[in-house]
Design goal:
This protein is about 15% helix and about 35% strand. Strand 1 (about 5) and strand 2 form a beta hairpin. The chain has one domain (about 5-210). It is mainly beta.
């Protein structure tokens, strides 16, 4: 199971999903632009040489059909920022993404180390907070499941999250708008975040993030 960018909105979407969990547009081409999550992991894990490739234009960051990528992976400390525009609908979306500093090992077929990706997305007046596992099967449902967030040395917070409408098992969304606002406010003032997520046949696993210096309006 791999995570690729949606051709319409640029958000992360499983290659096994029939439609994007963010914009709900059905996929038309499996060979879309280079996986956004793959780019994120390479940038964080592979060093600044990949950033130079991005800035030099060696990777165009365009998907046809679909929105034009206005900013393909601008890195500022622990976060990567991207803007995308849907030329057809005239909508602009911005993303902030960070990858867990640790990996979790699952059994076959997801063995080899899995990362958790935390993504903020804003399009118009709508904001999403979501997590995506690079390899693995999250145990949840559209009615919601409980995850745990801990910012710095604060108390553990129980956060209700939900699968997307297409039932993709590698993505979770924060269910309530007020909770999204609360999480983003914590992210702006925190340096460390631990997220605990339930996985099918694997139990609850914890992922640690460096969330310092988030720039988000």
């Amino acid at each position: 199971m791999a995570i690729k960018p949606c051709e319409e909105c640029g958000g992360p979407v499983s290659d096994k999903a029939e439609s994007c969990p963010m914009c709900e547009v059905k996929k038309t081409n499996k060979n879309s632009i280079i996986s956004w999550v793959f780019v994120v992991i390479l940038i964080f894990g592979g060093g600044w040489w990949f950033i130079n490739i991005l800035s030099s234009g060696a990777i165009s960051g365009k998907a046809e059909p679909g929105p034009q990528i206005m900013n393909q992976g601008k890195v500022e400390e622990s976060w990567i920022y991207k803007n995308a525009k849907d030329e057809m609908r005239g909508q602009e979306a911005k993303f902030a993404t960070t990858v867990s500093t640790n990996s979790v090992d699952f059994d076959f077929p997801y063995n080899g180390g899995s990362k958790l990706i935390l993504t903020l997305r804003k399009s118009g007046n709508e904001t999403d907070v979501m997590v995506t596992v690079s390899k693995g099967q999250i145990l949840c449902g559209i009615r919601g499941c409980e995850t745990a967030f801990k910012f710095d040395t604060g108390a553990v917070q129980t956060i209700t999250m939900t699968e997307p409408d297409n039932h993709a098992s590698d993505v979770l969304f924060v269910m309530h708008d007020k909770t999204e606002d609360k999480i983003i406010n914590h992210l702006k003032t925190s340096k460390k975040l631990i997220i605990e997520v339930p996985f099918y046949q694997e139990g609850k696993k914890q992922f640690t993030f460096d969330v310092s210096s988030l720039k988000w309006d």
